[in-house]
Design brief:
orotidine-5'-phosphate decarboxylase activity (chains A, B); 8-stranded parallel β-barrel; about 270 residues; Orotidine 5'-phosphate decarboxylase (chains A, B); EC 4.1.1.23 (chains A, B); TIM Barrel; 12 helices
Chain lengths: ~270, ~270
Amino acid sequence: MIPFGSRLHAAIADRGPLCVGIDPHAGLLSDWGLGDDVAGLETFALEVVEAIAPYVSVVKPQSAFFERFGSRGIAVLERVIAQSRAAGALVLLDVKRGDIGSTSQAYADAYLDPTSPLASDAITVSPFLGFGSLDPIVETARTHGAGLFVLALTSNKEGPEVQHARVDGVAGGGTVAGLMLDHLRRLNAEASPLGSFGAVVGATIGSTDEDLAFNGPVLAPGFGAQGGTIADVRRLFGAAAAVLPSSSRDVLRLQDPDVMRDFVVRTNDELRS
Amino acid sequence: MIPFGSRLHAAIADRGPLCVGIDPHAGLLSDWGLGDDVAGLETFALEVVEAIAPYVSVVKPQSAFFERFGSRGIAVLERVIAQSRAAGALVLLDVKRGDIGSTSQAYADAYLDPTSPLASDAITVSPFLGFGSLDPIVETARTHGAGLFVLALTSNKEGPEVQHARVDGVAGGGTVAGLMLDHLRRLNAEASPLGSFGAVVGATIGSTDEDLAFNGPVLAPGFGAQGGTIADVRRLFGAAAAVLPSSSRDVLRLQDPDVMRDFVVRTNDELRS
């Protein structure tokens, strides 16, 4: 199995780095003239996939908006994942899971094992229980050539109380965010051209003293409508091995499939120029 | 709507504090002579619910073990939740979700809105994005009389690197775990007899300097087979307003419905004596 980092590196070279978030919240369904129900969810999500999945390297469905509708919403998510992959996009499922032991293993089985109905190329994970609590997910990712994006340094205003906290016993008084990047640097040390273990770092954090050279990809939410510019991405993430600027609203509000497609193709061109 | 804290207080008085985790991992399904598939999951989970939900105050299904089977596993989870509540147990769904803004709201809708197929009495949440990132979930819980259990001080060996990290600007150099307890103390300040906003604190942490008097319930995993004793629970959590010692393996390995029922009734008697 080709590692996720290698597949992502090739996909970015082929299609560009833009990651499109599929975030079917109630307001968007309403803007599209759809009901806030499973039928509306399905129409919305599959139309977006059909319009953009053949043109972008990474599609990022937000699981929460499917979980809202219980098992029937998850059945739609299964189709979103399968159809996105069939169209040649890598699927980064945004689930922010994290637990310990056999429960972490169960999440790995759910989202990274190719035999699962929700099998994705990569997922987001949350390290509040310590980075090592994610070990079963890391090992499963290695086995199946999948990737992870670990929450590290997000741009929401409430994040610093945890992510900037100082870790005992680290030289220089490192932060929680810095420690997560250190763990990722270790996991990616031998990888070439790109590691499979990424970090979530907000595109609108302004600036950071953290070392983003960890040989893995950065998922950078907040690009576009939420304020992050191409200049921000270049300035903030110059040291990173690869960056996926992630945008959702900018694309989804366009509604018309041709306009959505043109927008993602043009944005990828701008990001690569 | 009666607040979750009040409902939990009454349920503990009526049935005792034991929380039974429903953790149908592959090994347990095999021990029960069941297949590692949706049919095995359903048989296992519904037999456990039928045996113990009429006798315990809180049933805690672990979502990961249902997510493993995609939408069909989630359909089983919907039945587990509904049948547990119909039997008079409160359902604490262990999902450890956490996100920001409209995504946090979507998780709240998924698990705390009574119209959702997965509506539960309470859920576990993860504060890596900062406690305030959970605000939409807190507000939705208040609206619907639901509860939350926020990860704070877990007993897994990897937890301290995040949970013991020192928060800048807090007098005395408070920890991340302590800050989470402070946030909970604020949310529960006016509640009587018990707040609705709880913490997850491992039954096997040994000792702690954190102040557990935050007027909310403590979920204490690790009780029983994982090593936590009744003496540990009394010593560690003497200051807490209410404690839910949580056990899974001890109960589930018994298999026979009558034996499971007798075990949970006897354990509740011991915990109350």
